[in-house]
Q: What sequence folds into this?
């Protein structure tokens, strides 16, 4: 189980570091998306602050996962980002690879939440 956790952390951390860094310098090609999805991404980009903020949060959360330190905090930081990514990919983008990515991110997040459930109990205890 320990090895699976390390693999999940490294894969998820690498995804977030790469995709987060891509928000600052777009080095990955973007596939064509439906008009609704393009409108949503354009709104994030033209706001002036939301797109870079998402990039910082993704890189920071991914780096924490890759480092192996503060994993419960990184899971908490990335939870709303993963929720938004999954809803975007499932409801707006509606592509096969996008749905696979959404399933991968949600399953990794749920696995790490379950793996660190004792620490979550300490964080939410009265």
A:
């Amino acid at each position: 189980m320990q090895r699976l956790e390390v693999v999940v952390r490294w894969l998820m951390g690498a995804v977030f570091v790469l995709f987060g860094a891509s928000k600052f310098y777009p080095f990955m090609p973007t596939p064509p998306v439906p008009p609704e999805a393009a409108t949503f991404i354009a709104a994030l980009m033209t706001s002036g602050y939301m797109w870079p903020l998402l990039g910082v949060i993704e890189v920071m959360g991914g780096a924490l996962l890759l480092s192996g330190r503060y994993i419960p905090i990184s899971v908490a930081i990335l939870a709303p980002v993963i929720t938004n990514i999954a809803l975007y990919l499932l409801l707006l983008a509606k592509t096969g690879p996008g749905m696979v990515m959404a399933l991968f991110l949600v399953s990794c997040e749920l696995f790490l939440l379950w793996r660190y459930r004792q620490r979550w109990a300490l964080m939410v205890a009265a």
